[in-house]
């Protein structure tokens, strides 16, 4: 029984180490289209990094950008787009994670 508990504890430690920490990212404006009323917010991450961002903070940023374009507010599209921003030796070294927002209510 003692051996089982020791193995279970060791397995838990190894699993926690492999999973790593999740880092919080800040979305920044990286593109969009005034004509289409689309705002693109993005952040970068490494291939081994687990990351997330504050959805409410990102929406606040998108609304601010939309208001600067003369719209009243913004709504988030569902999903994220992940693409390789920088590659080294045919392997992705930096990913770009992007979320799109639709500006609503012109003028």
Describe the structure.
By secondary structure, the chain is an alpha+beta fold. Helices cover about 30% and strands about 50% of the residues. The chain has two helices and seven strands; from the N terminus they run H-E-E-E-E-H-E-E-E. Strands 2, 3, 5, 6 and 7 form a five-stranded antiparallel sheet that branches. A two-stranded parallel ribbon has the order 1-4. Strand 6 (about 80-90) and strand 7 (about 90-105) form a beta hairpin. The chain is elongated. It starts with a helix and ends with a strand. The model has no long low-confidence stretch (mean pLDDT about 85).
Query: What structural class should be given to the helix and strand makeup?
Result: alpha+beta
Report mean pLDDT, rounded to a whole number: 86
Number of helices: 2
Shape: elongated
How large, in whole angstroms, is the Cα Rg? 20 Å
Low-confidence stretches: none
Q: For the record, give the distance between the C-alpha atoms at the N and C termini, rounded to a whole number.
A: 71 Å
Which percent band covers the strand fraction? over 45%
Could you spell the SSE succession in H and E letters? Answer: HEEEEHEEE
Estimate the helix proportion, in percent. Answer: 25-40%
For the biggest sheet, the summary is: 5 strands, antiparallel
Number of strands: 7
Topology:
Layout: H1 2-19, E1 22-25, E2 28-33, E3 38-45, E4 50-53, H2 55-68, E5 71-76, E6 81-88, E7 91-106
Parallel strand pairs: 1-4
Antiparallel strand pairs: 2-3, 3-7, 5-7, 6-7
